[in-house]
Each structure stands twice: as C-alpha cells, then as structure tokens.
Amino acid sequence: MKRAGILAAGMLGIAAAQAQVVTPRPLPARPVVVVPGTVTAVPAESWGAIAYHRASGAFGYSFDFVGQREAGVAALEACVHPECIVVASYRSACGVLLDGPTGPVVAEGVTAQEAETKARLQCTDPQCRLIAWSCTK
After folding, report:
1. Angle at the Cα of 99 (from 7 to 122), degrees rounded to 5?
2. By residue range, what is the domain housing residue 77?
C-alpha cells in the first residue's frame, strides 16, 4: 500500500510551502523463488527521499522508486526551490522531516509514526514541526 503525507505550515513568515507530487516509476517485477510445496515472492527494494530548502520552507518527497538516486532526483524535482537538497533517503521504510529552532531533523522507521517518534526524540523543542513524511511499499 502506498502512503505519503505532508503537513506544511508557514516557515519564517511564508504562508505555506509548495510541493509537487511526483509519480514514481513502477518497480520491476519481483522474482519468485520456488521451494518444494511453497511459492515465495522475494520483495523488491523500494526507495523514498525528502528534499528541503529551509529558508523558503519548500520541500518535496518521493516514494517507491527502484534506486536511491532516482528517489533523490524525484524529491528534488518535487521541491520547487532551486536550492533544495536531499535531507533524507530511505529504503523499504518511512522517512520523516521535522524542523525546529535548532534545525531540521530526519528519521526513518517501519511506520510513519515510528519515524516521527524517533525524530521527536532528537527535536524536543515545542516549536518542532512536522514538515513532510513518506513511506515506501
């Protein structure tokens, strides 16, 4: 199941960050391993990434790409500011970006909630805000 979500609030006087959703390329067919009496699918890896430009509040994210580079490029393309950088990339997981007074914090986890909990352990200031998250398959 594909899941991606964003929560963007105004940063540094900007009313809202702009994001563009990029449609991922389909993953290649998963190979099948045959064991006598059973059939098991070997899961293909899928990558996601988050790009961010703190000064403008612009961000972009991607999910379910076949490689780390492709996921990063897609996140940069979705981030509308020309100076965006990839702040997180994750394989077969969820990634979260928080931002607060001390700077951006990223974390990954099996679920978006786990990733956010890990990020909030690093960004403990009440002003820390969720900027973006996405999960691969």
Report:
1. 115
2. 3-135
